[in-house]
Design brief:
The structure is a single chain. By secondary structure, this protein is mostly helical. It folds into three domains: 34 residues; 76 residues, no CATH class; 68 residues, no CATH class. Helix content is 70%, strand content 0%. The protein is elongated. The termini are far apart.
Length: 236
């Protein structure tokens, strides 16, 4: 074994050094080439991604003035982005009926998903607030059969509250009816209690008798509950 190890270092010292130098040079070239290629690939991929994404262009290009018509085909993508959502919200406040009509068809198929999205829910709220009467009704129809789970969800409950503020009485009645049998569940929930409060504030009393009835015999217990007490305060 010792002889074998010794033989590796034997021979002409100059030739041995040349071989080592050549080997090191090859390794450096190989590594440099690989890293260069890797950086090139990454750069190309990033460049392609930036060029192909309107949302990225919106974030990067501070000199271009974007309008709602510019994001047609990308409305859902913008709605679920912090800056894209804020852009849509601001534009909807002053948008014409024509401008709203251009992007609304992209909202509807994804409405329920957007309602529970951290940024998308604000876009839905703005459409309830600034949309046409037809658009409000169409959005409200998307709530049918989903009012309870949305009321218990962190972002969905905000959409339900906004809807109750702006839709007509018939649609309000249809919405709140889905909470019948689950009133106390909502009252004791950190999100749902806000929806019950909004029902009491916005819906005619004769349409929410089932909510009032649910409080019978529960007032004392609810008055000491962290969420229930808020609802009781609204009632009285």
């Amino acid at each position: 074994m010792a002889n074998s190890v010794h033989s590796v270092g034997s021979g002409n010292p100059m030739l041995h050094n040349e071989r080592i130098s050549h080997f090191n040079s090859m390794m450096r070239s190989s590594i440099k080439g690989s890293i260069g290629s890797w950086h090139s690939d990454i750069g190309n991929n990033l460049e392609g991604r930036f060029l192909s994404s309107l949302l990225d262009d919106f974030k990067i290009n501070k000199t271009k003035s974007f309008e709602l018509s510019d994001i047609v085909g990308h409305v859902v993508e913008f709605s679920t982005d912090q800056y894209g959502s804020r852009f849509i919200q601001q534009k909807l406040e002053t948008a014409t009926v024509e401008e709203k009509s251009k992007i609304f068809p992209e909202i509807i198929p994804h409405a329920r998903t957007l309602m529970t999205d951290v940024f998308g829910n604000y876009v839905i709220q703005k459409f309830f607030e600034h949309g046409t009467e037809t658009q409000r009704k169409e959005l409200a129809s998307q709530l049918t059969g989903h009012v309870l789970p949305l009321s218990l969800q962190m972002y969905g409950c905000r959409v339900i509250q906004k809807a109750l503020e702006v839709i007509d009485v018939d649609q309000q009645t249809q919405m709140v009816a889905e909470l019948d049998g689950s009133v106390m569940k909502c009252v004791r929930d950190q999100n749902g209690n806000h929806v019950i409060q909004k029902c009491i504030e916005c819906v005619p009393e004769d349409r929410i008798q089932f909510i009032i009835s649910a409080f019978y015999g529960q007032v004392v217990a609810l008055s000491t509950h962290p969420y229930g007490c808020r609802v009781i305060q609204v009632c009285f």
